[in-house]
Design brief:
Structural class: alpha+beta
Strand order of the largest sheet: 2-3-4
Number of helices: 3
Strand content: 15-25%
Distance between the termini: 19 Å
Number of strands: 5
Radius of gyration: 13 Å
Number of domains: 1
Shape: globular
Length: about 100
């Protein structure tokens, strides 16, 4: 179950974590723990915006504008993705 992540927070990619885009999909790998995560096309776009934006809110706003999706569902999907990536040491959240 997703935690209540403040969307004013920023995410960062820890040292030792690599991501590779493979034909629209991505693989994110933690070289230290050897944990990896595969992302589909939408997950890849979320990753790009989350890791490149000034805040989770900024990434969220871009995704709402790009995709025909329920805003509440998108918020839950972002929280779930961040939780899963952070749990595997593939992303950090600074509040």
């Amino acid at each position: 179950m997703p935690t209540n992540i403040p969307f004013t927070a920023q995410v960062a990619v820890p040292d030792g974590v690599l991501s590779r885009n493979l034909e629209g999909e991505s693989v994110v790998l933690n070289l230290q723990t050897e944990k990896y995560f595969g992302l589909d096309e939408v997950g890849t776009r979320m990753w790009a915006l989350l890791t490149g934006a000034g805040s989770i809110q900024s990434a969220y706003e871009n995704l709402v504008a790009e995709y025909d999706v329920d805003a509440a569902q998108l918020r839950a999907d972002i929280e779930r993705l961040i939780d899963e990536l952070a749990e595997h040491g593939l992303l950090t959240v600074s509040k």
